[in-house]
Design goal:
Shape: globular
Largest sheet: none
Number of helices: 3
Structural class: mainly alpha
Mean pLDDT: 89
Helix content: over 70%
């Protein structure tokens, strides 16, 4: 259980970091983790609306990166 939480935080941080690099936005590690974790939910929702679902490690990471990128884009707009 603890290992699962650590792994989720690591993947969330990785997804947030990748999204930050793709979108040209730098942030702290905490911000990257939050963006990655929330981005996973946002990405699942948005991509689910158009019938795309990410499964497994790679798919989940890609969905999280897309969601975090959407959040960064929205943050820049407001």
């Amino acid at each position: 259980m603890i290992l699962g939480i650590i792994w989720t935080l690591f993947l969330g941080g990785l997804a947030g970091w990748i999204a930050g690099k793709l979108m040209g936005s730098e942030g702290s590690m905490l911000r990257n983790v939050i963006l990655g974790l929330v981005g996973g939910a946002v990405g699942s929702f948005v991509l689910g609306l158009i019938g795309i679902h990410g499964h497994g490690l790679i798919g989940g990471t890609i969905v999280s990166v897309v969601g975090a990128s959407i959040l960064i884009w929205l943050g820049k707009k407001f």
